Amino acid sequence: MRNLPRPTEFRMGNSLCGMILGMAKDTSMRKLLADKVRLWMTRVPEADTQAKLAVRAKMSQSSVHRVLFMDTEPELATAHKLAAAFGISVSELLADEDADAALDSPVDLRRYAALPHAEREKIRAFAEFVIATHAASQQTGTPLETVETTIEATPEERNLVGRVAQRNLTTDTLSAHETSKNQHQKPPRKRPKSIGH
């Protein structure tokens, strides 16, 4: 069995740094988390201050301050809370993205991050669909084609549309079986109520 170097500090908890061998005194993980949190604070207006972020992350403001100023050992639970406050996953929070990639984004990332989670999921699902469709067309070697066709209305449908267009606007619905005779009938007159008789 190989002898692995022991980390200088290994906590049994969920420390992000302590789990990486030989990295206990290294500030790179602290710096990474601090930098990423600062980046996402610029993207999410609802968490653009330490106070706002602390409320959204359900943490104390001093804990947020310690993360931002690299005064604490980053823990997985803390990263989860911070990521949730931004509406993203821990992997998205800690992703090693290029600054150029953010500039080339087809959407305003700040406005995207401000969307509710369900709306962001719709955008993500659509992007995945487009990417998968493109990948499928690359595998077959033939580009996908858009099919566009117009279905002409039948004479009955045209007649119905003509009748609807001539009808006075009401909250009533028009059934397919109405005749022009029914449309021109006047509503029955209401008799005025006599008072005192």
Strand content: under 5%
Under the CATH scheme, which architecture of the domain at 7-96 would be assigned? Orthogonal Bundle
Alpha carbon gyration radius: 32 Å
Q: What is the CATH topology classification name of the domain at 7-96?
A: 434 Repressor (Amino-terminal Domain)
Instruction: Give the helix tally.
Output: 10
How would you characterize this protein structure?
- This protein is an all-alpha fold.
- It has a domain at 7-96: lambda repressor-like DNA-binding domains (434 Repressor (Amino-terminal Domain), Orthogonal Bundle), CATH 1.10.260.40.
- It contains 10 helices and no strands.
- α2 packs across α3 (61-68).
- The protein is flat and about 85 Å long.
- It starts with 27 loop residues before the first helix and ends in a 13-residue tail after the last helix.
- Mean pLDDT is 76; it is low at 1-25.
Short descriptors:
197 residues; mainly alpha; 434 Repressor (Amino-terminal Domain); 10 helices; 51% helix; flat; disordered N terminus
Structure at a glance:
The chain is an all-alpha fold.
Topology of this protein?
Blueprint lengths: L27 H16 L6 H8 L3 H8 L7 H11 L3 H5 L4 H5 L5 H6 L2 H24 L14 H12 L13 H5 L13
